[in-house]
Amino acid sequence: MTDYLTLAGYRIAYTSAGSSSDPPIILVHGLMSHRGVWTRTMEMLKEHFFCVAFDLPGFGDSDKPKGGDYSIARQAECVLTIADHFGFKTFSVIGHSMGGQIATYLAATLAPRRVHKLISVDGVVTGKLSDRAQHLNRLLVLVGKGFPAIYNPSLALSKWKPYAYWAFKVWFDNPAKLPFDSWELDRRMAMNPKSAWSASAAWDSLNATDLTSMLKHITTPTLIIFGEEDGTVPASQAHLFKAQLPSAQLVLIKDCGHFPMYETFDEYIKPLQLFLMQ
Hints:
Layout: E1 3-7, E2 10-17, E3 24-28, H1 39-45, E4 50-54, H2 72-86, E5 91-96, H3 98-110, E6 115-121, H4 131-146, H5 151-157, H6 161-167, H7 184-190, H8 196-208, E7 222-227, H9 236-244, E8 249-253, H10 260-263, H11 265-277
């Protein structure tokens, strides 16, 4: 079920699960993604935690005003505003990809005392993505910013498996392992013409935000989960995170790309649950 709230002039879509009397978790999706990536995760956590997953401004079902501020810092502030709305004095945060970058920024600089636990799932650290993502996919997004209609033929073609497997090669170690329909919504959200401007602006800020020097300031318990075959965020960034924050726990998953919550759910959810329950 989708609910909405208005924060700082934005209409924000969110989904919640669990009892509001339980410890809270805020879940943050990645670039050109949506809150739906957390559906199965929330189902596994809702017995012991109150989970809130929301669409960042500019993505999913939330408002996408052209010219809005889609910087990493502003999106981190949005997470805090969500926490304030629900009355969370402290909370755990789980972020994927750009969402991991946002969550880490939050724990390192913006509100370190409010983040109870931090989980970064294939999160961006240096601000740089893989060569393919940074050059080919980034070029497509730049073209889309000027000509949003280009997303429409791409979306139509994405219903054809060979094209989808090529276009989203950076997402999975082996997309053929997954039921094709299971990530159909993700393809639609990534190719939404209404997100053309916000996607490009967010990508600019993602590239400009290098967290390396900030990591040592994180004091909250931290878990890093990473697919070893991630074609979007190189796994070397997981090792960098661990090197800069030795107290962090690092879980590397074999035969897994950028979406462990889809490709290798059991290997992803078990350490996540254990970490949160400690």
